[in-house]
Amino acid sequence: MIVGRIVFVLGLFFVFFSAVAAVVMLFTGRGGSVLPWFGLLNGFMAMGVGDLVIKANQTVE
């Protein structure tokens, strides 16, 4: 259960910082990099995996 929560929180942090980087990138005119958008996708996937692990552990107990 703790592993799922850790992965979920890490994904949440990754989404937050990638979203901040994407917004800053849009307003500074440096729109050449797509890395913050892939970071955002990666964070959402980590949050989903963490949620699945949490729910799988809840059904076992």
Using brief descriptors, characterize the structure shown.
61 residues, mainly alpha, 87% helix, 0% strand, rod-shaped
Layout of helices and strands:
Elements: H1 2-28, H2 35-60
Question: Could you describe the 3D structure shown?
Answer:
The chain has 61 residues and is an all-alpha fold. Helix content is 87%, strand content 0%. The protein has two helices and no strands. The mean pLDDT is 87.
Short description:
By secondary structure, this protein is mainly α.
Work out the helicity level. over 70%
Structural class: mainly alpha
Give the strand tally: 0
Mean pLDDT: 87
Distance between the termini: 10 Å
**Largest beta-sheet characterization:** none
Helical segment tally?
2
Poorly predicted sequence stretches spanning 5 or more consecutive residues = none
Please state the overall shape, judged from the principal axes of the Cα atoms: rod-shaped
Order of helices and strands: HH
